[in-house]
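Write out the 3D structure for:
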Amino acid sequence: SDWYFFPLRYVVLTTKHHEGFTNWGSSMSWNWNSLDTGPHRDLVGELGQALRESNIRYGLYHSLLEWFNPLYLADKESDFKTQNFVLKKTMPELYDLVLKYKPDLIWSDGDWEAPESYWNSTSFLAWLYNDSPVKDTVVVNDRWCNNCSCHHGGYYNCADKYKPGTLLTHKWEMCSSIDKLSWGYRSNMNIAELMDEASIIEELVQTVSFGGNYLLNVGPTKEGVIVPIFQERLLALGRWLDTNGEAIYESKPWRVQMENSTDTVWYTSKGPAVYAIFLIWPRDNVLKLSSPTPSPATQVTMLGFAGTLKWQKSPSKGLLVTLPYMLPSPLPPQSGWTIKLEGVK
């Protein structure tokens, strides 16, 4: 347990992906699960226990379809008039996951080929929210049938790497992957195909400004190792959140999401405080914010820096903030700093 948990609120594990291998000892997946073969361990159970001890919410990803399962392929052949795969394999396993591991979140996937009438999603969800052991706490996403996504669900994922570009009225989540070409681990990936620290932070900030949650994926190796380059990216994000997390966690979108003139300043809010997160350090050390309206009582601080910052009313509108002097450094500067504004409208 020497893994340093950066501040996060929930973790989602793939219990079963589209190939059908289950990371727990499913009795519906004889000899094709992590207890009967491979590590001979209940990975879903072990991770759940570790997360609960760390007070982190536990989400389970589950694929409804299985690309190679003969039962599924036969149902598909019948135009989904038969439901042998649903009744004998995928639904019994989903009920088993809920009863055995009592997840805080269910991240459904693999829904897109068939209608709700095939998957029996509504009867599962009715049970989940009315009778299951997690009925009062569980959260789900929107991938439950071929036209559910972005229309029906707890929160919306819509598409992978979804960027609405505007404030949504419904809670949503952006799922992204450090490896830009894959969700699973690739032994042949190269550095240019990975997101760097700055682009991860930018994606997080944009998502939260628009009211979304950010779910960042890494694919472990077949031995279950998170490779050092992924660890490095996650730890860098954790260090950034150590300083700037106040503007991210439990925040709400502000009346303005970003400065019109630029997509390098993004806003969040919490109670009376407004946070302006800027991704590029201005050359003249003066940050121009045209959206907030200051008052004589306005106080300006920067997360991670002691003391208040000088500011003045902008000649046009908004305010000009004098940033602390940063020592010149041969390294490119970190990405993303947060100005906290109190007493602005």
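Residues 84-101 form the longest helix (18 residues).
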